[in-house]
Amino acid sequence: MKNKILISGNEALAEASIQAGCKAYFGYPITPQNEITAYMSRQMPEKNRVFIQAESELAAINMVLGASAAGVRTMTTSSSPGISLMQEAISYMAGDELPCVIANIARGGPGLGNIAGSQSDYFQSVKGGGHGDYNLIVIAPSTVQEMIDLTFTAFDVADKYRTPVIILADGYLGQMMEPTTIIEKKETLHVTKDWALTGAKNRTPNAIHSMYLGDGALEAHNEKLQRKFQKIKKEFCLVEEISTNDAEIILVAYGTVARICKSVLRKLRAKNIKAGLIRPITLWPFPEQAIKKAASKAKFLLTIEMSTGQMVEDVRLATEGKAPVYFYGRTGGGVPKEEEIISIIESKL
User: Which of 233, 203, 222, 230 is nearest to 97 (CA)?
Assistant: First the structure.
C-alpha cells in the first residue's frame, strides 16, 4: 500500500504539476491560491526549472504563451479577478493552438468580492471567456486527490489537443487538507511538438500566430478549430454517476458542492427517495449524454451550485425538455447545506 501524506489542495496541485513535467511556472500572488505560487517558488528552482513571479497576471499569462510556443510544459495559476485579466492572452493561445494548464482557484465575486470559495466563474471558463469563437477544456476536481490526478490529465490533454486547459477549483478545495497519494514521476503522455519554435537549423521554419488577414483565411482557421473542438467532445468527457440507474430524482453538482451532494444522496436513499447524482468532471466538454439519459426517466433534476445559476443552463439544454430542472444556489462564499437541499427536494415530490 502506498504511503499517504496530508496535504492541501493547492500544494497537491503544485506538486502534481512538477511530477507531470511542468518546466516553467509563471504567476502572480492572489488569495486563495498563494500556496501554489509559494510552493513552486521553492521547488521549481531546486529542480532547475523556471519559476518567475511576474509583475502582473497579464505578464504571467504572456510568459506562459512564450514558453508554450517554445515547446515546454508550462502553467500559471490565479484566482477569479486574476483569471479575468488573462483572457486576452488565453484567446491568443486558443487561436495559436498552444497547450498550457491554467488553474483557477475561484473566489467570490463580482469585483474583488471576497476570498471564500465560489463557482461563479463557470460561464467564464466554459464559454470561452475571451474574444472570438473558441472553447477550452475545463476540468473540475472535487477532492484533494483529484487535484493531483486531474492535474496529470490536464497536462496530457493540453499537449494531445494543442489547447489551453483550465483546472477550475475553488477556495475551499484549495485550502482543505486530505490524505493523498502522489505518484512520483508518473508516466505522462509524450507528444512530439514539431510545431514548436525551437530554432530552424536544418529544417523549415515554424510560425505560430493567430492573425489571419487574407481573404477567407481566418474563416478557414476557425473551421479548423471547430473541427478540433468537435473531436475533443467525441473523445474526452469525464463524468461520475452515482445511483442513477433507478433514480427518479437527479442531483447535478460539481467540485466542492458535489461532495455535499454525495452526503445528501445517502440521506435521501435512507428515506426511500430514489435519488442519484451526476457529477460533471469535465465542465467542457459537458456530459450532455449522461444528463439526457437520466432525464428520460427522472421526475425532475436539481442543479446545486455556489453561484446564482450558471451550469444549470447547460443542464437544461442537455435534458432537451425531458424533465423539469430546478436550481438551488448560494453566492458570495455561501455553501449549500444538506438540510436545505433535502428540503427543496421533498417540497417538489
Answer: 222
| Residue 234, φ and ψ in degrees, nearest 5 | -75, -30
Residue 300 identity (one-letter amino acid): F
Domain with CATH 3.40.50.920 in the chain: 239-348
Q: What's the CA dihedral at 92, 95, 99, 104 to 10 degrees? A: 50
Query: Which pLDDT band holds residue 214 (cuts at 50, 70, 90)?
Result: very high
Mean pLDDT, the chain, whole residue set? 96
| Cell numbers placing 125 | 471558463
Confidence of residue 186 (pLDDT cuts 50, 70, 90): low
Number of Cβ within a 10 Å radius of residue 29: 15
Extended beta strands in 176-309, E state: 177-180, 239-242, 249-252, 275-280, 282-284, 300-305
- Integer Cα distance of 15 and 87 in angstroms: 26
What secondary structure does DSSP assign to 267-295, as a single string? HHHHTT--EEEEEESEEES--HHHHHHHH
d(CA 137, CA 163): 8
pTM above 0.90, yes or no: yes
59-88 as b/e: b if 16+ CB within 10 A: bbbbbbbebbbbbbbbbbbbbbebbbbbbe
Peptide bond into 280 cis (omega under 30): no
Residues linked to residue 139 through DSSP beta bridges, in sequence order: 167, 282
Fold for the domain defined by 239-348: Rossmann fold (3.40.50)
Please answer whether residues 333 and 170 qualify as being in contact, where contact means their C-beta atoms are separated by less than 8 angstroms.
Answer: no
Phi-psi region of 136 (alpha: psi -120 to 50; beta: other; left: phi over 0): beta
Burial degree of 1 (CB within 10 A; 0-12, 13-18, 19+)? exposed
**In the beta sheet, which residues pair with residue 178?**
7
Residue 100 phi/psi, 5-degree rounding, is -165, 170
| CA-to-CA dists, residue 187 to 21, 143, 156, 210, angstroms | 10, 22, 10, 32
**CATH topology for the 5-190+210-235 domain:** Rossmann fold (3.40.50)
- Tally Cβ neighbours within 10 Å of residue 206: 15
